[in-house]
Amino acid sequence: MAISMRLSRGGSKKRPYYRIVVADARSPRDGKFIEKIGTYNPLLAKDSDERVKLDTDRAKHWLSVGAQPTDRVARFLDAAGVRERAARNNPNKAKPGEKATERAEEKAEKLKAQQEAAEAAKNAPADAPAEESAEA
To answer: What is the pLDDT of residues 69-115, one digit of tens each?
Structure first.
């Protein structure tokens, strides 16, 4: 049986409140769970002690048995000092998509063409009067 440590949602509409539970991975999010090991209230301030309450002894027990925490619960466990969470690094996340890259390239080409046209316009009037005076 795959056991996971995850959040179970409670509270009313637009007023979330979560229980940190140990449950069978196949059970529904708000369904049957094995044990409640803490709570999480996202409406409280981030520096509040009441925001995340966690029974660290039970969390250590379930981790030793083989329970797999979700990403959010793993963050809570890392903050509590129960389990070290490896930092993630995705350098491609900030890169724009294909279409945005194409639009940026087109914009750069148009800007370059405008600059070349402006330089040609600056140089052309200076050359034009000299040619007219030479013809006359």
So the answer is: 999 999 999 999 999 988 778 888 888 899 999 999 999 999 999 99
Contacts 24+ apart (CB under 8 A), 110-119: none
CATH number for the 3-80 domain, one of 1.25.40.10, 3.40.50.620, 3.30.1320.10, 2.60.40.1190? 3.30.1320.10
Q: Which DSSP helix (H) or strand (E) runs through 9?
A: strand 3-12
How does pLDDT run across 6-41, given as a tens digit for each residue?
Answer: 999 999 999 999 999 999 999 999 999 999 999 999
Domain positions in the chain: 3-80
Instruction: Give Cβ neighbours of residue 13 (< 8 Å, ≥ 6 apart).
Output: none
